[in-house]
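Structure ticket #2291
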Amino acid sequence: MTESEVLTSVQNGVGRLTLNRPKALNALNRTMCEIMTEALLAWRDDSHVRSVLIDHAGERGFCAGGDIRMIAESGAGDASEAKAFFLVEYRLNDLMVRYPKPIVAVMDGIVMGGGVGISDPAPLRIVTERTLYAMPETGIGLFPDVGGGWFLPRMPGETGIWLALTGARIKAADCLPLEVGTHFIPSDRIEAFKASLIESHETPRAVVEHFAADPGPSPLEPHRDAMDRCFAFDTVEAVFAALAAEGSDWAEAQLKMLRSKSPQSLKVSLRQMRAGAKMATFAEVMAMEYALGGCIVRTHDFQEGVRSVIVDKDNDPHWKPKTLAGVTSDVLDGFFAPLPPDEAWTPLP
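Resolution: structure written out below.
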């Protein structure tokens, strides 16, 4: 028998979900989301379960995203399988946001895309010196989904917008001030921390704070003011102009990153961020992202981005349109059109 891709157990009152697909850096598929959802629903009203721990097998990745190949293959057809995955994944994300018991996510290693979706909702988010956090979707013609439209615009200043557009990767010392993580624990203390969490009768927060350490100074701190100035606009063209006017080496590096991304994805992602910032509930954002995802996975840029970055690995995507000017307001309006009620995303009861 093959081992489950998510291991579930209850240990001394702690419901434990261990992502168990290490060869794929624990990237999520539909089955994994269904297993996690089933366990969380079972534990929600179980008085024997006090808290939940989400961790992972292997040392390289907490969760490197979702099953992008499947999504692209589905998007090349009628996108039905991709939509089915998004429905289950987004319901899991929403369930976690509303969960009545403390969740601890141990984000040790790569945390991208779908991994962000199952860690951002946790009240306690542990990072280590091995944590590498990013939402790199604009580089494959997608957008930062799994609740990115809720979490990213609510990060300090314009840091979430910067992460969404550039796909920049950050480590532990930046994860804490950007509120991606709540605590830093060195990786060589993680097993002792998890053992204490399970064995102790203290609250999860008290256990976390006993092990928490200082990750060191934030490399981004010197650039935060410039980031807030340059990424505060509602159009991508204005962001480009502000970075060009800034004139620093940092600003030039951001421009270089942005110019490599899909122009369509940049405009979609910025509109998603600004719209999500105004929404009152996480479920509203999920409904927007579900409708948006069903459109975007069928576009040329997503198919081309996956071909270039994941399939052929030539890192030479040919975007259409090639320029920001080619992505019109009418095109964006079509992407953001709500679905009919019988097709729209809905949360779990």
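Closing remark: The longest helix spans residues 80-97.
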